């Protein structure tokens, strides 16, 4: 961050900076850009001429039917939008209030599953592929240092089935009996407390969550 610009920043901007600097999981450097001042290389630069609500609507227009409640609440409650450059990646920060910030990664038109998930028999679910064209990863800002290791929709490179988890578990509890195949569950949201949201694959049936 450029200290010479701090005096010109809004209170929400300063809250985001404080939020990142106090995050124990985040150690990177960053640049924060207020709405209307996104640089040319920012993927959202061309549409920042819209007012903020129309900007958000433009960003999420392809997934409003997938996440109608999230979209409506974001439109209703988002106070401001910021572009964040860190770790050679762009993120969009949605300021809900001075304590709550949501963060979305760069859009990715051709997301891909990690090799382990492919080996477990998965193809990328169309719902995730559609969402990744909006944000490749989406969650609360404080988990950014773990690149959404928890509390958010994982980016494509973090997707995996539950097979690695239970393979590790069997090393300590070899007699464990499961009534499901861990390879049939593709984790896309993890809350950091051992709970996850997954896509569930049933042989010869459609994917479900």
Instruction: Supply the helix-strand structural class.
Output: alpha+beta
- Assembly state (oligomeric): single chain
Our Rg estimate from Cα atoms comes to: 19 Å
Q: Give a quick account of the main beta sheet: strands, pairing sense, barrel closure.
A: 9 strands, antiparallel
What is the 3D shape? globular
Strand percent estimate: 15-25%
Structure description:
- This protein is α+β, with helices and mostly antiparallel strands.
- Helices cover 25% and strands 20% of the residues.
- It has 6 helices and 9 strands.
- Strands 1, 2, 3, 4, 5, 6, 7, 8 and 9 form a 9-stranded antiparallel beta sheet that branches.
- Residues 1-7 have low confidence and may be disordered.
List the helices and strands and how they pair.
Blueprint: H1 11-22, E1 30-34, H2 52-60, H3 68-77, E2 80-86, E3 89-95, E4 101-105, H4 115-119, H5 126-132, E5 138-140, E6 152-153, E7 160-161, H6 163-172, E8 185-190, E9 196-200
Antiparallel strand pairs: 1-2, 2-3, 3-4, 4-5, 5-6, 6-8, 7-8, 8-9
Helix pairs in contact: 2-3
Features:
209 residues, alpha+beta, nine-stranded antiparallel sheet, 25% helix, 20% strand, disordered N terminus
How would you briefly describe this protein structure?
The protein has 209 residues and is α+β, with helices and mostly antiparallel strands. The protein has helices at residues 11-22, 52-60, 68-77, 115-119, 126-132, 163-172; strands at 30-34, 80-86, 89-95, 101-105, 138-140, 152-153, 160-161, 185-190, 196-200.
């Amino acid at each position: 961050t450029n200290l010479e610009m701090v005096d010109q920043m809004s209170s929400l901007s300063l809250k985001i900076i404080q939020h990142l600097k106090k995050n124990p999981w985040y150690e990177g450097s960053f640049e924060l850009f207020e709405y209307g001042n996104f640089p040319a290389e920012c993927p959202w630069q061309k549409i920042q001429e819209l007012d903020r609500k129309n900007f958000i609507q433009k960003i999420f227009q392809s997934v409003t039917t997938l996440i109608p409640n999230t979209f409506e609440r974001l439109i209703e409650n988002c106070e401001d939008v910021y572009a964040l450059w860190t770790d050679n990646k762009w993120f969009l920060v949605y300021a809900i209030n001075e304590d709550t910030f949501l963060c979305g990664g760069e859009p990715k038109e051709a997301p891909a599953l990690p090799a382990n998930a492919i080996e477990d028999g998965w193809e990328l679910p169309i719902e995730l592929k559609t969402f990744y064209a909006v944000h490749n990863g989406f969650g609360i800002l404080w988990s950014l240092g773990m690149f959404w290791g928890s509390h958010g929709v994982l980016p494509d490179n973090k997707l995996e089935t539950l097979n690695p988890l239970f393979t590790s578990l069997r090393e300590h509890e070899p007699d464990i009996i499961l009534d499901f195949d861990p390879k049939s569950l593709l984790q896309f949201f993890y809350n950091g407390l051992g709970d996850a949201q997954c896509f569930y694959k049933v042989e010869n049936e459609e994917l479900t969550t």
